[in-house]
């Protein structure tokens, strides 16, 4: 007996192939990049105010958002300046 979801033809189609999927990925990459930028700015503020744990977690959030943006086709931003 087959599982009900195994016969779904949509599950066999590759993801990210339609124009709608591409637009959704671009939007998600843009949002992830924005989150990375904001987390970076907040981490810098936390560092200046001697909040090392908050700085650490904000840098983790930045790294996660950067990684997700790259996976979705966005570009990473050089924040070394």
Backbone CA Rg: 18 Å
- Please count the helical segments: 2
Cα end-to-end separation = 60 Å
SSE pattern, N- to C-terminal: HH
Portion of residues in beta strands equals under 5%
Overall mean pLDDT: 82
Low-confidence blocks of residues: 9-13
Total DSSP E strands = 0
Largest sheet: none
Shape type: elongated
User: What helical percentage do the residues reach?
Assistant: 55-70%
Task: Find the structural class using helix and strand composition.
Answer: mainly alpha
Commentary on this structure:
By secondary structure, this protein is mainly α. It has a domain at 19-71. It is built from 2 helices and no strands. It has helices at residues 19-48, 52-71. It is elongated and about 45 Å long. Residues 9-13 have low confidence and may be disordered.
């Amino acid at each position: 007996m087959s599982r009900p979801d195994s016969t779904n033809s949509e599950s066999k189609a590759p993801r990210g192939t339609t124009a709608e999927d591409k637009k959704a990925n671009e939007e998600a990459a843009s949002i992830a990049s924005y989150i990375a930028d904001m987390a970076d700015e907040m981490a810098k503020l936390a560092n200046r105010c001697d909040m090392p744990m908050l700085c650490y977690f904000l840098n983790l959030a930045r790294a996660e958002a950067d990684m997700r943006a790259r996976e979705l086709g966005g570009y990473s931003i050089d924040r070394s300046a």
